[in-house]
Amino acid sequence: MTVGPFATIAEIRAALASKATSATEVAREHLDRIARSDLNCFVTVCEDAALAAAREADALISREGQSGLLGVPVAHKDVFCTAAVRTTCASRMLADFVPPYDATVVTKLRDSGAIMLGKTNMDEFAMGSSNENSYFGPVSNPWNPLRVPGGSSGGSAAAVAAGLVPAATATDTGGSIRQPAAFCGISGLKPTYGRVSRYGMVAFASSLDQGGPMARSAADLRLLLQHMEGHDPLDSTSADVEPTPSAADGEASRIGIPGEYWCGLDPRLAGALDDAAAVIEQIGHRRVDISLPHSGYATAAYYVVASAEASTNLSRYDGVRFGHRAQMPADLDDLYARSRTEGFGAEVKRRILTGTYALSIGYYDAYYRKAQRLRRLIRQDFLDAFNDVDLILAPATPSTAFEKGALSAPDDTKDPTAMYEQDVYTVPASLAGLPALSIPCGITGGLPVGMQLIAPHFGEDRLLALAEAFQRETDWHQRTPRP
Ligand code: GLN
Q1: What is the pLDDT of residue 249?
Q2: 319: DSSP letter
Q3: Cβ 66 under 6 angstroms from ligand 1
Q4: Which in 205, 259, 324, 374 has the greatest CB count within 10 A?
Q5: b/e per residue, 144-156, with b = 16+ CB within 10 A?
Q6: Alpha carbon distance 302, 316 (integer Å)
Q7: How far away, in angstroms, is 7 Cα from ligand 1 center?
Q8: What are the residue numbers of the active site?
């Protein structure tokens, strides 16, 4: 029996447990859909390894029954290192890089029985909001192939939305889980900074980077998080906290609506969010108007901090130890310069240049230190707000999925800050290290609208509980693009 393109993890688990289907059949049908898809979601498909793992899963299921994620297909964003499977970060720099080890998230999901079908496309080094910065070409939005899927985790989001996988991993530095989830009409969770190990995740901005799950329901996000999270001695910033419980805490809560986020918001998105807020009120939560006064500085602060960290993290790509190496260098300087010139795309170079500038003597105080001060104020805004409310409801994006080429040009002639402004609603929670998710809450112009929910640090249980309750009342998460 086939489970069909839009089965949730919960449904796949049930079908495996009842022996209505097998892990091999489930892997096969998803691999067939991947092969037929022209959305460019995948950089690498691991068909043989996936089918071998599925056969092992079937043997285990017949002996011990289904448990955990045993037999559930997943895809990993190509930012997670996978031993023996190339990990490109969608960059020419790493186009042939085969890591010697697995990321902790990859190990954990494999240990829970999940079957990796492949590695998903993304913006190069996770820098971008449209997936147009990939060395492997853009990804199409399954709702409308002329539109972007969002970024940087565009391949993961589009693959879930198109029914190519029921779940995928992704990373979020300034919105790269929430924004593509919103654009593709799926559910995506950025956990609290530190809840999920960053070991083996190619670094972009280390004080912001956080891995998390994408799926078709909040209940599936909870299950995936449980199999991804946990303290990791290999990541010194990973937190040692209580695991996420399976049974949601369903208490009524106060939901903060930050006025700043509604100011100037597209009325069609505002309408969908107001309707969603009304549903949340109907199920017993209270709506409270709040203010996050420094929100307007978040994008500027984020792009200084993230680029500064990127400029230092990406200094390791020197053409010597690994990654792209220029041919016939005249001397060592030429080797460095040409390897980096050839290996990195335009947006990555721009981040390295601006980040290096912001960190240089004479500009450090004016840019980097100032951005860090703003970051503290933004974080404090949230901590103050969470004295009065339990969760915050906000837009995930300023618009629905925009057209390919609208904010970027192949010759790099468009103003890059127009793309950066797409992140206005997602970067504040990133700067504050808070958990936040995006779930579908409407459709306008034939495209999904995302609702963002933000919780206090390590408040994932409460965050997911509200998302699960919302999805019991509504069916936006069950809407799918035309096949
Ligand atoms: N769009 C943002 C950027 O380009 C966020 C990227 C991310 O979260 N990885 O930096």
Answers
A1: 63
A2: S
A3: no
A4: 205
A5: beebbbbbbbbbb
A6: 22
A7: 29
A8: 77, 152, 176
